[in-house]
Amino acid sequence: MMTRRSMLSLPLLLAALALSVGCAGSPTAKTIVMGDTAEDAHTEEESTDFETNKIYKLSLPGNKAVDVWGWMSSRLLLGSYKNQGTKQDIQLVDYRNLSAVSLTPLAGEAQTGKPSPDGKYMAYTGQSPTGETLYILDLNTSQSFAPGIPDKGKGITSAMTWSNNGRYLSFTVKSREYGTESIVVYDMNSRTSQEIPLPRWQENSEAPAPRALKRDSKYTVISVKFADDGSTALMGRIGEEGSYVTLGAVTEDKWTRKFEHSASERQFDYVNDSQIIFLDAKNTLTLYDERDENTVALSAGVSTFRLSGDNKTIAYAKDEESLYVAKLQGHNMIKEKLVYKGLVLSQMDWSPDNKKILITGWKSYDRAPATGNPEQTPLVIEFK
């Protein structure tokens, strides 16, 4: 655990790292492609958009892999490892030289953290005397606080998701006594929360339930993401008739559906105030424009995707192990380029400067049939 004195020196560490970034030389531009074995790899010279400067494999001293959660800055990553006790230490990892600093142990028996897109906070859950509790760690002060949600007797039932500007944190909760579910959204500006009952589609006369959804069908919400202004939210849900992404307007304690499409319950995002992007049920990357209510197919055979922080660039995987990057322009993707091949991706996160992307995944030939839990490899792809 980090001492008080070393915690106070954190700003100096950040300043030194920032200075070293400015003094670093420019590596040779290359694209690296994984070979057929764990050791084999080859490089290709490239001279077009999305040139790859270098690819960094992340591991702590002793070849100990770190569980990487996301970016704190354009140079530093957040992650953790289990120490000898029951708590987890937050690691601040420099992806270039692999130096790591332990910031603070997490409160309670913490689960995987969720850093905010602006790198200021990290949300995580842990156990408290009242049960499961949401904690928010201020990454500048290394201090955690508990907003007091969910209420006693309720448990978190979906992934935690930040709005793209880092203002809103949302998830679903369920009453253990009554079985009722609600959406909870926490506003980092006002430090207040709002609980919205999950919508009952058959009772919403303004937007009747989809034809494929039976009147009494039950569904499970996988994730909810709010727009930057908090006026709408995207919901990914799965039920008896398949999975859907839903765009809804949020007013006080009511949810009104505006658009819905069969889609992956986990793969969706806001492009801007009037456009959303999602992966449909046939693995087609799809754009919906609310202004003309038009749906556009962008690319087929996509397994996962991630928008950059400025929403101008998109990274996406095709053919299971091929990572592509392209520019978003209007209703089109342009300048598509293969930048990496060799991992089945489970995570992608763009850096705040939109010039690097963190990817985590496994090699298909390393999959463990008995356990189904192959070793995850975290990498940072640095673009020119």
- Detail the poorly predicted runs: 1-47, 202-216
Q: Give the termini separation.
A: 36 Å
User: Helix segment count?
Assistant: 2
Look at the structure and give the mean pLDDT: 79
Estimate percent helicity.
Answer: under 10%
Residues in β-strands, percent: over 45%
Class by alpha and beta content: mainly beta
Q: Which shape, going by the Cα principal axes? A: globular
Q: Identify the strand order in the major beta sheet.
A: 17-18-19-20-21-22-23
The rounded Rg comes to 21 Å
Instruction: Give the tally of β-strands.
Output: 30
Largest sheet: 7 strands, antiparallel
Protein topology:
Layout: H1 4-8, H2 10-23, E1 31-34, E2 41-44, E3 52-57, E4 67-71, E5 76-82, E6 88-94, E7 100-105, E8 114-115, E9 121-128, E10 131-138, E11 143-145, E12 154-156, E13 161-162, E14 168-175, E15 181-187, E16 192-197, E17 219-226, E18 232-239, E19 242-251, E20 254-270, E21 275-280, E22 285-289, E23 294-299, E24 302-307, E25 313-318, E26 322-329, E27 332-341, E28 344-350, E29 356-362, E30 377-383
Antiparallel strand pairs: 1-2, 3-30, 4-5, 5-6, 6-7, 8-9, 9-10, 10-11, 12-14, 13-14, 14-15, 15-16, 17-18, 18-19, 19-20, 20-21, 21-22, 22-23, 24-25, 25-26, 26-27, 28-29, 29-30
Summarize the entry for a quick read:
The protein is mainly beta and 384 residues long.
Can you walk me through this structure?
The chain has 384 residues and is mainly beta. The chain is built from 2 helices and 30 strands. The strands form 7 sheets. A 7-stranded antiparallel β-sheet has the order 17-18-19-20-21-22-23, with no helix packed on it. Strands 12, 13, 14, 15 and 16 form a 5-stranded antiparallel β-sheet that branches. A 4-stranded antiparallel β-sheet has the order 3-30-29-28, with no helix packed on it.
